[in-house]
Write a structure and sequence with these properties.
The chain is α+β, with helices and mostly antiparallel strands and about 800 residues long. It has 29 helices and ten strands.
């Protein structure tokens, strides 16, 4: 026989193949460019005046410090003759690290004080020698003898020795000012009772502890923060200090460890969500077995495309990426599943757009990582729908509208009995009860606690315990600064005002704010009324790195730093408000404002707390508008909005009863519940209208898969993500219940014609005008294309397409009858 000629691929097929390969290549490259960001900037409101003030302070004095806390078994061991040089070497090594703005600790401070004292002694000694030599030279020039010249020299320095000798005796009672002299060190650092002096407690918090503070440069990103923290740990570990415990902590250290934990959890949680959702689609019969993972395939493609797009845009992924994967895999797979099961494409697209609108409303949140989550989910849902259409096209010949098996069809033959009608009185009673519960939940939203503390949001990070231990030793875990700005902040008037500010703050709020370092504190040796020249000379005597920690080189800014515990944000907000009100009025030409992470965290709490109702309602309104425009019947949009309102209210009522505090993620519960409630009500209503048990089963499977994906987040080590996953899983259940209740109370009147989806039953016509009863009022229905549940293989009528002979499906049905 002659060989059959090979068919060459068409130009169209080659073009499609090229496009697929190009998209796959771009996606792969984009995924390699994805970066994460779990620094404090992702938790705090960007662009807010409090955030800008914090950035301004960081540019001048460095960011929030990395804290090295060294503890010894005995008192004063770390300040002994053998350990002090090690501390000096440690601080010098840290100061030479990249991305470090300033380092200060007890070793360098004592070394600088000792050097200044030695310089003073050398100056006094040199001046004494000069006086003696001058007197002796004058005596010899006058022709006096050697004895007389010596006597004249002794007389010349006698008065000088009397003046400065007594000063040295009073000022240096501990002997020579060297680090090898324990008496000198103890006299400088400790009071007579053995406790550290107040001005040195920020670096010597207790007799058996020493702290070194490393301030990073401003604007350090996630990768730079992680490199810096790793380098600090390495240098501190190799310093050779004899410690009983060495702790490296601070907000940069927490951010670095949080970033590592996020990267570890992303594949684990994503894989767990993928396995749970795949099990739902595989184990629950809803379509042919070989096509059950097609929705998951489409969603994974959408996830990869979304992440790749963020990588190409150079937008780092914040903490929300941990929640992004399970959420998108869970809800994004719903829409391809509906398309494969034969749902009306228009309804699926509109429901997806409504879900995307609900997620996109999270983009209005003041918290950056919540905004990122919302925009990423909205884009992912839309991409999942697009890929779902491609999947549907590929699987159409065998999957669309096909029942699982003849056995399963036989089991469902009697499963589509009409629901018994409810009387108006009973319907009204049920509706009033459900609305009352939802109304109670919506009312509770006004006073539900909202957690916005950075340390609570990072709860679950291993180094958080180190931060809590450091807080116990140092007396604070955060830092609040009073930033003073002006043309010249080192004048006598400015210094006197800053001293007044510090004294007032300590006197009124000393139980909550602990002084760390300030310009008046470092220049206290100048007395109460120093002259401008004395201030300049005093600054020259301070170690440069220590002076630049409190005043900028150009003299235009200075800070007064206080330590504060990261306590309840609402209480801290009141504290900061009272501190602001208590600040004395600054001299003309100066301004003062509170800056620091606690200040921005309190501002974030204020914004999130004040935005709680708009955050939930905007998503519902946006989704409702999409449904109102996209669906042929207004009643369908009304059902969906009612279901979203009920599901949100029930969820809030449950949080109120259980005493669960909301977070920046869950405070937008309305937007989150809208995504599922609208989807379920629209598709469930279509399932009842078309008398399609298979479509209703698809809705149930989708809800089960979404819940399973959300529950995967419960395996996270971060309490914020874990609580969010459990909250969302419960929200999906409430959304399905609300959708069923709404469809039950306001049923979609089934399409006229023979009942579909019965075993061996006839398919109804393609276009039938149905009616809809909502609140007892009939509404003119749009066109619904019913699903026969079997697809009639070989007829070519899938998706409502006309049969090959051109006969309409209605005519074919008539002939069949």
């Amino acid at each position: 026989l002659p060989a059959r000629p090979r068919r060459r691929p068409s130009a169209r097929a080659c073009a499609w193949l090229a496009v697929v390969l190009l998209v796959a290549l771009a996606t792969g490259v984009g995924l390699t460019r994805v970066e994460s960001d779990t620094t404090t900037a992702s938790f705090l409101p960007a662009g807010d005046p409090a955030q800008r003030a914090l950035e301004e302070s960081a540019r001048s004095f460095g960011g929030d410090p990395v804290v090295i806390l060294a503890e010894s078994a005995g008192a004063r061991e770390l300040l002994g003759a053998e350990e002090i040089p090690k501390l000096v070497a440690l601080e010098g090594s840290l100061a030479r690290l990249p991305d470090v703005a300033v380092v200060y600790g007890p070793g360098t401070i004592l070394n600088q004080i000792a050097g200044a004292a030695q310089n003073l002694l050398a100056t006094i000694s040199g001046r004494r020698d000069a006086l003696r030599a001058e007197a002796e030279e004058q005596a010899r020039a006058a022709g006096r003898s050697d004895a007389e010249a010596t006597q004249a020299a002794d007389a010349a320095v006698a008065e000088y020795d009397l003046r400065y000798g007594s000063l040295l005796v009073r000022g240096l009672p501990a002997g020579l000012p060297t680090l090898r002299n324990p008496s000198f060190v103890n006299a400088v650092v400790f009071d007579q009772d053995g406790s550290p002096r107040q001005q040195w407690r920020f670096v010597v918090p207790s007799p058996n502890a020493a702290a070194v503070l490393v301030r990073p440069r401003e604007g350090l990103d996630q990768a730079g923060t992680e490199r810096l923290v790793a380098a600090v740990r390495q240098v501190a570990g190799s310093a050779g200090l004899r410690t009983s415990r060495l702790t490296v902590t601070g907000m940069p250290a927490i951010a670095a460890d949080l970033g590592g934990q996020v990267r570890r959890e992303i594949p684990l949680l994503g894989g767990l969500a993928l396995g749970l959702i795949a099990a739902c689609y595989l184990l629950v019969p809803w379509v042919r077995r070989r096509h059950r993972l097609l929705p998951l395939t489409a969603t994974l493609g959408a996830t990869a495309l979304t992440l790749a797009a963020l990588g190409w845009l150079g937008h780092p992924l914040s903490l929300g990426v941990v929640a992004f994967l399970p959420i998108l895999v869970g809800i994004g797979s719903d829409f391809p599943a509906y398309l494969i099961r034969g749902a009306e494409p228009r309804r699926v697209v509109v429901a997806a757009l409504a879900s995307a609108a609900g997620f996109a409303s999270l983009g209005l949140s003041p918290v950056p990582f919540v905004r990122d989550l919302g925009w990423a989910l909205a884009a992912g849902v839309l991409l999942a729908v697009g890929l779902g259409f491609l999947t549907r096209r590929w699987a159409a010949p065998a999957a669309v509208g096909h029942a699982v098996s003849q056995h399963e069809m036989g089991q469902e033959a009697g499963a589509d009995r009409p629901l018994p009608a409810m009387s108006r009185a009973r319907r009204a009673a049920v509706l009033v009860m459900l609305v009352a519960v939802a109304a109670a939940g919506w009312s509770a939203l006004a006073f539900l606690d909202i957690e916005a503390r950075p340390d609570r949001l990072a709860d679950g990070v291993s180094t958080l315990a180190d931060a809590q231990h450091a807080e116990e030793v140092l007396g604070s875990a955060g830092e609040v600064q009073i930033l003073v700005s002006g043309t010249n902040v080192i004048t006598p008037q400015a210094l006197a005002w800053m001293r007044q500010v510090e004294d007032t703050t300590i006197r009124r709020f000393g139980g909550d704010l602990h002084p760390i370092v300030s310009l008046p504190g470092l220049l206290a040796f100048l007395g109460d009324s120093p002259t401008p020249d004395q201030i300049t000379a005093g600054l020259g005597q301070l170690p440069r790195y220590l002076a630049t920690a409190v005043v900028r080189n150009d003299g235009r800014q200075a800070v007064i730093s206080f330590g504060v515990e990261l306590q309840d944000v609402a209480r801290q907000q009141d504290l900061l408000r009272n501190v602001r009100a208590a600040l004395p009025r600054p001299p003309e030409g100066l301004t003062a404002e509170l800056v620091g992470l606690p200040v921005v965290a309190a501002r974030g709490y204020e914004l999130v707390s004040g935005d709680r109702y708009p955050a939930s309602l905007i998503g519902i309104v946006a989704a409702g508008l999409v449904l109102l425009v996209g669906l042929p019947r207004r009643s369908d949009a009304a059902r969906a909005v009612l279901a979203a309102v009920l599901a949100t209210g029930w969820g809030l009522a449950g949080a109120w009863v259980c005493g669960v505090a909301l977070t920046p993620l869950t405070v937008s519960l309305g937007s989150l519940a809208t995504a599922t409630a609208c989807e379920f009500s629209v598709l469930l209503g279509q399932g009842y209208a078309r008398r399609s048990p298979h479509l209703r089963r698809s809705v149930a499977v989708a809800a089960l898969a979404a819940s399973a994906g959300y529950l995967a987040l419960a395996a996270s080590g971060l309490s914020l993500i874990r609580q969010f996953g459990i909250f969302l899983a419960a929200t999906v259940g409430l959304s399905l219940l609300a959708a069923f209740v709404v469809v039950r109370l306001f049923p979609v009147r089934p399409a006229a014609g023979p009942r579909a989806d019965s075993a061996g039953g006839a398919a109804p016509p393609d276009a039938v005008a149905g009616t809809d009863a909502v609140a007892g009022t009939d509404a003119v229905a749009g066109t619904d294309v019913p699903d026969d549940g079997r697809g009639a293989p070989g007829t070519g009528s899938e998706h409502g397409a006309p049969p090959p002979d051109g006969t309409s499906s209605a005519a074919r049905t008539e002939v069949k009858v």
